């Protein structure tokens, strides 16, 4: 009888111990979930204000490209505010900012861009401020595009130089999740940044692709064997995630899209960027989920 009681007591202790462990594990899961939600975001948007947004040069009857950009920016700001609202006030220490390279000559555009540099922490976070971010970004970025299109003097976009001289200082912060969203058609060219090292360049244009025979079915073999691609513009950008939106290849070459994406993929990989996506120009309604998933989903 004593043996039976002892066995029963041991079994009871085991059940209680297992139950306590399960409760502890559940607590750990909750803590992990909260810690990922409290991560600080540093979100940057880089606008390509070249003639890709020109209504005269690149009209699109379905939706103009500048309007698509505005839709993409709306989704970025919504994802940012959704992240903020998932945090406790005392945990908030997040930033969102907008860049051009080079800066437009229009002083109004540069003034507007300053208003779009948002830094929120526990000292200034409020319900009114969080609720104003989306409308503020929508109205101010709309003014930027309207001004650029009205001026019709597109100075181009120097994305390569931005990565070479500004990304580390302006888009990467220690102890933050650094996300850079680039709105561009995928081509790169700027008059003051034309460099060539073998078949590596600081630019890519339809003419360059055609001139070098990257418009045939054997493009991939040539790309790899002759080492085509962008010149590296940073040694270690492993603390940066990049989302490229708006790729718009020349439709006269069926291989153009793949070539453009191969250039960007090789470039990012060479600069040790671990997480990136490169997406074609599409309607904002079709891109919204892509943008929000990229920004809101924790990368392991």
From TrEMBL:
Signal peptide bounds: 1-21
Keyword Signal part of the UniProt annotation: yes
Keywords: Signal
Superkingdom of the organism of origin: Bacteria
Protein name per the record: VWFA domain-containing protein
């Amino acid at each position: 009888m004593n043996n039976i009681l002892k066995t029963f007591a041991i079994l009871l202790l085991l059940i209680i111990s297992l139950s306590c462990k399960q409760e502890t594990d559940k607590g750990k899961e909750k803590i992990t979930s909260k810690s990922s939600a409290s991560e600080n975001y540093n979100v940057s948007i880089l606008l390509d204000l070249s003639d890709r947004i020109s209504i005269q040069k690149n009209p699109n009857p379905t939706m103009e490209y500048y309007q698509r950009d505005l839709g993409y920016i709306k989704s970025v700001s919504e994802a940012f505010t959704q992240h903020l609202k998932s945090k406790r006030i005392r945990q908030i220490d997040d930033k969102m900012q907008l860049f051009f390279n080079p800066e437009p000559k229009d002083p109004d555009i540069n003034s507007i861009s300053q208003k779009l540099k948002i830094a929120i922490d526990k000292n200034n976070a409020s319900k009114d401020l969080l609720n104003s971010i989306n409308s503020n970004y929508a109205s101010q970025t709309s003014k930027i595009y309207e001004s650029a299109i009205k001026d019709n003097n597109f100075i181009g976009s120097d994305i390569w130089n931005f990565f070479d001289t500004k990304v580390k200082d302006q888009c990467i912060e220690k102890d933050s999740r650094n996300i850079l969203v680039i709105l561009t058609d995928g081509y790169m060219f700027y008059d003051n940044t034309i460099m060539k090292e073998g078949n590596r360049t600081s630019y890519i244009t339809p003419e360059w692709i055609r001139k070098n025979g990257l418009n045939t079915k054997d493009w991939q073999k040539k790309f790899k064997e002759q080492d085509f691609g962008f010149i590296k513009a940073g040694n270690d950008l492993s603390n940066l995630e990049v989302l490229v939106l708006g790729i718009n290849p020349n439709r006269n070459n069926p291989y153009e899209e793949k070539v453009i994406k191969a250039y960007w993929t090789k470039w990012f990989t060479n600069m040790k960027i671990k997480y990136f996506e490169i997406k074609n120009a599409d309607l904002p309604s079709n891109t919204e989920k892509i943008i929000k998933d990229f920004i809101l989903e924790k990368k392991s």
